[in-house]
Amino acid sequence: MHHAWLLAGKQGVGKRHFAEEAAADLVRSGGGGDSDGLTNVASHPDIHILTHLPKDDKENAKREKGEPYERKRNIPVGQIRAMQQRLNTRPTMGSRRAIIIDPADDMEAGASNALLKSLEEPPEGTFFLLVAHRPAQLLPTIRSRCRLLRFPTLADAEMQRVLADHAPEAGADARSAAISAAAGSPGAALDFLTLNLGKVDAAIRRILAEGDDDFSRRGDLSREIGGRPSRKRIQAVLDLACGALARAAPDAAGSNRIAMIDAHDALVRLSGEVSTYNYDAGLLAMEIGTLLANAAPHRDRAHG
C-alpha cells in the first residue's frame, strides 16, 4: 500500500471519518490492537491526528472542560516537527502507525515544507492521510507524493436520507433549503440547520436575484450574519454565497455570467483569507454583499 494518501473533496462529505476508519484498520492490521481497542481513534498511541489547536491557554481550558473553543487559524510547523520526533521511534503497539492531517491545506508554509521531508523518506510502517478541502492550495511536491482519493458529493435523495437520520426534528422546508444550499455536502447541510442559516441564505439569494441599489439588502445580510459570528459561521456564509453563484452562473449569459464567475473567484479567495486574517464581521458582510450585488442581472456594478 502506498504510504501517503490525499483525501480530497468538498468539506463535509466524510473525509475525516474515512481517514479515522482507515487509520484504525491500518494499525489493527499491523498488530496494533483489536476493534475494541480502537473505539477512540484519537487516543490510540499509533494514530496521530494533527488539526487546529486551541487559539490560546484560555481556549485550551475550554476544550479540557468539553466546551466550544476557538481554534488557531493554521497548522504550524511546530506540530509537524513534534509529529516527526515521534517518527524517530518505533510504533508503540504494532508495526504500523498512521498520521492524519486535517485539513492539510491549512498548514503554514513552513509546516508544508517540513512535512515534505517525511513524505520523501517515510519511516517503515508509517502511513499519511492528508484531508484536503482545497487540494490545489497544497504544494505541488506534496500532491505529487500522494495517491489521490476523491470524495464525491451526494445526490439529493441521499441527502434527504442523511438529514432524516441526523436532523429528524428539522421541518421539510428547512431540509429542502439545506439540501439546496449544501450542494451535495451532508456536513454542510447539517451545519446549515444547526447554525440556523436559513435567513442568511434567503438574504444572499435576494441580493443575487435583485441587486442592492440602496445597500438595504446588504444591511439585512449583515444583521443575519450577526455582530460576532464564529469562524465556522463565517465560513458557512461564504460557502453559501459561492454555492448560490455556482448554481446561477450556468443559466446566465454574456456579461452577467462573466460577472458571476468573477464574483465566485473573489469569494473563493476571500474564503481562503478568512482563515489567516482577522476581518471585521460587518465589513466582511458588506464585501460579500457587494460581490453578490455586482453579479446580479441587469444591474450597474455595486460600490462597496
From TrEMBL:
GO terms for biological process: DNA-templated DNA replication. It comes from the Bacteria. This is DNA-directed DNA polymerase. Keywords: DNA-directed DNA polymerase, Nucleotidyltransferase, Transferase. It is an enzyme of class 2 (transferase). The keyword Nucleotidyltransferase applies. SUPFAM superfamilies: P-loop containing nucleoside triphosphate hydrolases. Its EC number is 2.7.7.7. One of its GO terms (molecular function) is DNA-directed DNA polymerase activity. InterPro entries: DNA_Rep/Repair_Clamp_Loader, P-loop_NTPase. GO terms for cellular component: DNA polymerase III complex. It comes from Alteripontixanthobacter maritimus.
